Amino acid sequence: MELLSVSLGVYYGDFTVAAASENLTASQGKALTVLRRGPAAMRALATTLTCDASNMTGIIDRLEKRGLVRRETAPDDRRVKTVVLTAEGERVTDAIRSKMHATQDGLGRLDDQERDRLYALLERVFAARTDA
Q: Which tens digits make up the pLDDT trace of 50-74?
């Protein structure tokens, strides 16, 4: 548990610095990272990021003002707003990832087989939790 805590601390510290280099808060950067996987409803974003819906609205408002995301009405329910990453949002997300040097250096010490094994282990430990 201690090593997992240390590794997450390094990752989030690295992520926070990289997001700040793009003039984003860590929460804004996390929202972009989640949206990099695909569009999401506002409520789902709030749940994923474990924040209050009103806080999520503020985060998305600021990202939208910068042209990094846009809101769209869900085709199956006009009451639901879906958030979509723009091309500029994709660029910024990629820039954040490319600036995460401590994380990249650590993962770079693993060969392809070791990275695949690490992925499989993390998926086994955490994916079941997120699917529930």
A: 999 889 999 999 999 999 999 998 8
CA distance 116 to 132: 24
- The whole-model pTM stands at 0.85
CB 55: neighbour CB atoms within 10 A? 12
CA distance 29 to 1: 26
Q: How far is CA 70 from CA 49, 89, 94, 128, in A?
A: 18, 10, 18, 30
* CA separation for the pair 72, 5 (Å, rounded): 37
Find, among 82, 85, 101, 76, the residue nearest to 21 by Cα.
101
